[in-house]
Design a protein that fits this description.
By secondary structure, this protein is mostly beta strands. Helix content is 12%, strand content 38%. Strands 1-4-3-2 form a 4-stranded mixed beta sheet, covered by helices on one side. The longest helix is centred in the N-terminal third of the chain and has 9 residues. The chain is elongated and about 35 Å long. It binds zinc ion. The site of zinc ion has 9 residues, from loops.
Length: 78
């Protein structure tokens, strides 16, 4: 899978990723905080670690994926 590193959201912790998706409004039904994490996957692109969060809106079922740049903390906490 090809990552567009420009669209990756830089975070300093996994908690920050979760907080990020909680404050996102659904593009389809515009309900805020309705996105629920479905699947979390670790991806390496050009030796940089990324977290991909596949989310689904609990209100309308719309799916949305987010890419986070986790190179700030990956390998430091584990
Ligand atoms: Zn929705």
């Amino acid at each position: 899978m090809k990552i567009d590193s420009n669209s990756a959201i830089s975070v300093d912790s996994v908690e920050e990723e979760y907080r990020y998706i909680q404050q996102i409004s659904c593009v389809q039904c515009e309900s805020k905080g309705s996105l629920k994490l479905d699947l979390q996957s670790l991806i390496f692109e050009e030796n940089k670690p990324y977290d991909k969060l596949d989310c689904q809106c609990q209100n309308c079922g719309a799916k949305k994926s987010f890419i986070f740049d986790i190179s700030n903390f990956f390998g430091k906490l584990f």
